[in-house]
Amino acid sequence: MSNADKIISLNITKFPQNLLITGIDNEIKIQTVNTSSKKETFKFDFEGENLNIRLQPEEFNTHIEFGPGETKDITLKLEPTADGFGKLIINVNWLKITEYKVKVQKVRGVVPVSKMNAILKNYAFTITEKVEMFNSEDYFINMDQNAIKKAEQQLKILREEFNSARSMGSSTSQLLEKIDAYIKQLAKGYLSINNPLKALEFALMLSNKTEQINLYTNLIRAYASKDFNQMVQVARNLQDLDLQQKILKLLALDQVLVNPEQAIRTGSLIQNPSIKEDLISIIFSKVIESNPLSAQKLVEQIDNDFLKTRVLFNIAKKLYGQNSQSEVIKIFNLIIQLSHNSYSNNLENRKLRKQSYEFIKDAINALAEFDSPTVAHSIIETIAIQELKEKLTKNLFDIIYVMVDEIQTKVEATLAFSQYFLLNTFISQVNREITNFSLIGGNVSSNILVNDFNFPIAFLSLFSFDFSIFPILDRVYNDLKYSLKKSIAYYVFPSKEIYNQNELNTLNASLKQFFKNLSSVPGQVLIFNLDFIPYLGKPTIIISSEHDLSDRFYSKIKKVGDTINLIIDDSIFKGGKISNELSQIFPTAKSKIINLVLSYEFINDYNIFKTFIQSLF
Fold first, then answer.
1. Contact 180, 206 (CB under 8 A)
2. Quick check: 68 and 37 in contact, CB under 8 A?
3. Which letter does DSSP use for residue 469 in this model?
4. 132 is a domain residue
């Protein structure tokens, strides 16, 4: 089995010539040699059909390295799992490892350029509207019910004077100023006695429309300090939507420092997006400035995810300035979560999807800088929407990733050795005699082991030599079976003790067990009691003379040619102890025992041996 011309050589140093049975060690030992002048890697694959294989050492179960010219030994222990034959397949792949340089994408250690301030500045609140302080006490006066009645009577008188003067064409400006003054006084008076609706009625009596709206608005704001919910409802009932939105905004602003949560809830009632965004900016700019962590808790009150996200960026900006790292990281992760959900829910809305993408991109960018590029990369990897994932990777590449040269290895597997072996196996009725038969080196052809007696010729080798007769018999058995579709059988029992009683017992028991169904064959089987003698200078066949074998049979043997000698002997090579033993075992009606002796030349020339066997058919 040496393969010196290849990169690895395998030499079998031990091979089981015996019948493989259970309960004993059926070992194959293989010496493997790396014929290369450098270190090489190999992968050994051992497969078995009808065989269980135990491999030692276990390092051969995976790829294994050999040093230059190094030798390693392998032991295979085979356990048969069926009667007949087992197939052992050995494949060895040479793993050729090639190194090459490639550009690979790696996650950066740190971001190359800081963009944190630019990102946070981009989302910072821009407040152009000046919020004026409002003092509700200016609209509550010390006026009781009697004073209100007197003022109403005086207002009535003034209105009558106003109407008379106007009908006469006289100047009414001074009277009108007095009337408006009483109206304002009465509006504040009714507000002071907790009758805001009446107060609002009076506000609408003012002569100037602008003053009407201002007073109406301020009365609502003032009384909200006593009953905020009632005033919110009054505002919501207004038919003038512009005035409604304006008053709701002012009510919310009045609550910024008193009750921020209530301010946000009131702001959520505003339908105009720009007004609502401005209001939220004002509210949270004040809350964030005083307590950013408190502002973070209030974010959930915002019913618009985009407003909510922008507020979160502003909270992050404040905390970033305070070096609150853990809180900033939480906020950026929350922004990513909110924006990812919004992106997923607005796949058909290009504008909303674009805004969500910008939020996600900027938050991941910020995390890469404030936490680490590795964290940013892990977030991108968790994104399920492939389009979004690829876009983020591309646009944030210079922030999170870098291309570096890397040495990689490529493994190319080349089949360096391939061989299979057929071994006779037997697991049924393994008794003491069969065990002894196997241990002494006995073997039987696989057709007998599976009770296939469709053969005309059987060879029994019952003597021990300095070599094993099993390989040549098994080879010709398989050649005839698979190439020529002809069938023979063989039985090998290499006697060590010249057939003492123990060996005779084993011989008798094993032959009877293996050939017990010989009587079922349709014709007669020629059983050759095969022996070998040393070299005679020319391949020589010595066969006993049998009166019931026709000349045609002997003529078949002679067809092998002049290259052999054929001797028919009626004295020394006829009969004998073993032949007599065989006659007691095999039924004469179904078998004919013939003593056959071949010279060693047949062992050394397989083709002559095979030709001789073929001639017997």
1. yes
2. yes
3. S
4. no
The owner of tokens 């017997």 is 616
As a whole number of angstroms, the longest Cα–Cα distance in the chain is: 176
Predicted model pTM: 0.54
Among candidate residues 366, 390, 417, the one where a domain is terminated: 417
Tell me phi and psi for residue 100, to 5 degrees. -150, 155
Instruction: Tell the burial category of 17 from Cβ atoms under 10 Å away from its Cβ (0-12, 13-18, 19+).
Output: middle
Joined together, the tokens standing for residue 224 give 């909200």
pLDDT tens for each residue of 155-199: 999 999 999 988 888 888 999 999 999 999 999 999 999 999 999
Region class of 291: left (phi > 0), else alpha (psi between -120 and 50), else beta: beta
User: What are the Cα distances from residue 393, in Å, to 379, 383, 500?
Assistant: 11, 11, 86
Helices then strands (H, E): number in the chain?
Answer: 24, 16
Instruction: Tell me how far CA of residue 30 lies from CA of 43, 55, 72, 244, in angstroms.
Output: 15, 11, 8, 96
Do the beta carbons of residue 451 and residue 517 sit within 8 Å? yes
Q: Look up the domain containing 504 and give its range.
A: 430-615
Count of C-beta atoms within a 10 Å radius of residue 214 = 13
545 occurs within a structural domain: yes
Three-state DSSP class for residue 105: strand
**Contact criterion met (CB below 8 Å) for 212 and 196:** no
